């Protein structure tokens, strides 16, 4: 469960004034000509300088959000009383960060860019978009979307049987804010789905090899892959003597719990199989590779591992782990070619760990001359 917290200064009538460079004020008004002008005159009388204005439609009127620089020593209660004298409701006065003073389009695009670059930080980006006090990522069965807490709580399905739960004490969420959050999450889902789409390898020999996710209908082709592999190749993958994969394993190989299977396909044949399985406790995700003997040392394993690293990064993973036989350095060399900087786990020569690159930096790639 991921939780991100922020502590805006929420001031109720009667509380003492604290020094602040700017305030964020939310005012519920009837949508009638002249109302905003009268409020602006009241603010000018109090020597408040308006720095920014957003108008949020709500049922029965509008919600004006004003960022202003207050006069030195101005009590917040005096500001609230002045707004109420115009027949409007001041629902919140909180300290504001002047860094927030960008136009809505720029703020939204910046948030979307950050969410795409840092998939693991979507909850924090969502907190910023909603100006929420807390955003929590929980299993869908724990989200309880019917519990709205008077508009101060909102739930957004995130896919993969999870959901984001946002809470904000200082002001209820309005429909426009919720729509922005839904659009952001939809964008992330589209990017994620696009990342997991099939790709064609660029090979010097011109062979058409496609990397794509495995589906249940690939069971026979994956079974045939294992039958064409030597016992040595199968032993390096499964660490046990076997001539063919048991039928009961096929569905789990293609549809691992919470994970992804990645196939290398040439024509109708599956010539390679990779898996990415997230850790149940939030630790490093595990990867594994199997490449048909006749296709080894032709860059297939390198391409599979590079693609698995890309998919892991898109899912917010920061580290991968792999189990190999002691003395077998083939996976180590493959990871090094991908650019993952493999390290052997101290005290366990058969386990490798490699940190994933920051999405802002160069992603792992597979060159034309890679071999495995």
TrEMBL record:
Disordered, as annotated region: 349-372
Residue span, ACT domain: 24-104
Molecular function per GO: acyltransferase activity, transferring groups other than amino-acyl groups
Pfam family, one: Acetyltransf_1
Transmembrane segments: none
Residue intervals of the N-acetyltransferase domain: 209-359
Family annotation (InterPro entries): ACT-like_dom_sf, ACT_dom, Acyl_CoA_acyltransferase, GNAT_dom
PROSITE patterns: ACT (PS51671), GNAT (PS51186)
Protein name as annotated: GCN5-related N-acetyltransferase
Taxonomy of the source species: Bacteria, Bacillati, Actinomycetota, Actinomycetes, Pseudonocardiales
